[in-house]
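Review this fold:
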Amino acid sequence: MHDPTSRTSVFSALFFLALFFACTGSNIETVETKDEQGRLERYERRKKDFAKAGLYQKFHPDGKVYKEARYTNDTLDGECKYFRPNGSLESIEYYTYGVLDGKYASYYENNQVQVEQTYVNGALQGLSTAYYPNGKVKEKVMLRDNDENGPFTEYYENGQLKAEGQYTPGEDGPLEQGELKEYDEQGQLVRVANCVSGVCTTKEKK
C-alpha cells in the first residue's frame, strides 16, 4: 500500500526544485547579434539591465570562434582568447574588471608559444620572452610601463647567445645603452661596443 504523505513530499520537493532553477536562471538570457563587420556575437546578459554577465563569443564568418571572453557587469573580467580562422589559438590575455592584468601569451599556428609577457594594472611590466617556432628562446628583455627598458639577451635559432646589453626607451623604439656584446652562431664573442642612445661604437672586435 502506498503512503500518500510520501507521494506528497516527493511532489513538493520536485516543485520547489523546479521553482529554484526557474528563479536562478530567469535573470540571465543568451543573445545573438552581429557587429559592424557582420560577425555573429553570442553572449549572456542580465535581463533587468542588458549588462553582459558571463560567457561572450564572437565568430568568424564560417562559424568558428574568433573571440571568447568572460564579462562581469558589462565589463571584461577574466580570461580572453582569440582564435585564427583555422581554429588555432592566437593569443590569450586576462582582465581584472576591464583592465589588462596578468599573463599574456601569443602563439604560432603550430601552437608553440610566440611571446610571453605580464600586464600589471594595464601596463606591460617585467620579463618578456619571445620564442622561435621550434620552441627555443629568441629574446629576453625587461619591460617597464610598456617600454623595453633594461637588460636584454638575444639568441640564434640554434640556442646560442647572439647579443646582450641594455635598452632605454626611445621615441621610435628601444635604444641600446651602455655595453653591447655580440656573438657568432657558435657562441664566440665577436664584438664589444659602447652605446649611447642607440649609437654604438666598437670598443673591441675579436
